[in-house]
């Protein structure tokens, strides 16, 4: 399977992640990947093309598509575009699962080929997603209440208008092949500050060390240790950007053995030492 698992971490203090699509300048391709979270792309300007299970779904301004949990997809953006991406943890919908940890959503882009089904009207959902992004970016007084109000409107519309109440057994089985690893990676994101070994995780989830190691290499295209490092580094980067904590404190708070070890790995990943990046961010602000 030539696809990778994508690590998704919510925005600081929020139960979701919202941002502008990184391929907005065009000439961009995102290879096949998957993640546990539900993902919505709302195109404001320009256009891009999605590939879901080798089916092509072109989107133009005003278009919207929902990517389901564990759904393998890739993206092609040859031209400039402005696209808001909203990523919602799967557990937000646990009251509406049609099977164990299974829920599916549709969208106009996905049912356009099937004239028997009536496509939901995307205008409301697209409106709330754009407004959510604006409120999050502006951060005006009371923005926390505004963003959560918009977010719950989005969840409401998704459950009411987009949720599929029936699921084929084959689709459920296909999803479950990735669900086992999703449970493990979710646990890792919740406990990443603690000491964590492959053998401990294997015992916790009832696998042998060798089987769990193969699972990571096959489905996440990365080994267990490197994946844990990615989690720790992502949270540390966020703290470095958004807090006044010392670099030593950030390193220790995010599971690194020392500030030296953190700085070494940080420079490998981002090209700068933590102190250098913090200086650059201070100039931008």
UniProtKB/TrEMBL annotation:
Species of origin: Blautia segnis
Q: Which UniProt keywords apply?
A: DNA-binding, Transcription, Transcription regulation
A molecular function GO annotation = DNA-binding transcription factor activity
Extent of the signal sequence: none
In which domain of life is the source organism classified? Answer: Bacteria
Q: What is the lineage of its organism?
A: Bacteria, Bacillati, Bacillota, Clostridia, Lachnospirales
SMART domains from the UniProt entry = HTH_ARAC (SM00342)
InterPro entries the record matches = AraC-bd, Homeodomain-like_sf, HTH-like, HTH_AraC, RmlC-like_jellyroll, Tscrpt_reg_AraC-type_HTH
The record's PANTHER family line, in alphabetical order, gives: ARAC-FAMILY TRANSCRIPTIONAL REGULATOR (PTHR43280:SF34)
Q: Name one Pfam family in it.
A: AraC_binding
Is Transcription regulation a UniProt keyword of this protein? yes
Ranges of residues in domain HTH araC/xylS-type: 182-280
What transmembrane ranges does the database entry give? none
Put simply, this protein is called Helix-turn-helix transcriptional regulator
């Amino acid at each position: 399977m030539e696809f990778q698992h994508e690590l998704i971490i919510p925005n600081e203090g929020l139960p979701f992640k919202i941002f502008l699509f990184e391929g907005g300048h065009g000439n961009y391709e995102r290879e096949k990947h998957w993640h546990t979270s539900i993902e919505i792309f709302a195109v404001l300007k320009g256009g891009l093309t999605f590939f879901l299970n080798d089916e092509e779904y072109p989107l133009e301004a005003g278009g919207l598509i929902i990517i389901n949990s564990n759904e393998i997809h890739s993206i092609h953006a040859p031209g400039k575009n402005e696209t808001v991406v909203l990523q919602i943890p799967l557990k937000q919908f646990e009251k509406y699962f049609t099977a164990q940890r299974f829920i599916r959503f549709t969208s106009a882009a996905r049912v356009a080929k099937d004239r028997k089904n009536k496509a939901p009207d995307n205008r409301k959902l697209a409106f709330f997603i754009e407004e959510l992004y604006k409120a999050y970016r502006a951060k005006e007084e009371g923005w926390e209440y505004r963003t959560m109000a918009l977010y719950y409107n989005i969840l409401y519309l998704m459950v009411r208008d987009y949720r599929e109440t029936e699921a084929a057994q084959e689709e459920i089985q296909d999803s479950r092949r990735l669900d086992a690893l999703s449970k493990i990676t979710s646990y890792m994101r919740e406990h990443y500050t603690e000491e964590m070994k492959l053998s401990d995780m294997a015992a916790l989830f009832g696998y042998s060390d060798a089987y769990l190691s193969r699972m990571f290499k096959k489905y996440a295209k990365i080994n267990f240790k490197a994946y844990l490092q990615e989690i720790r580094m992502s949270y540390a980067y966020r703290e470095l950007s958004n807090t006044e904590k010392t670099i030593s404190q950030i390193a220790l708070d995010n599971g690194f053995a020392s500030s030296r070890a953190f700085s070494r790995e940080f420079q490998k990943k981002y090209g700068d030492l933590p102190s250098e990046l913090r200086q650059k961010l201070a100039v931008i602000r």
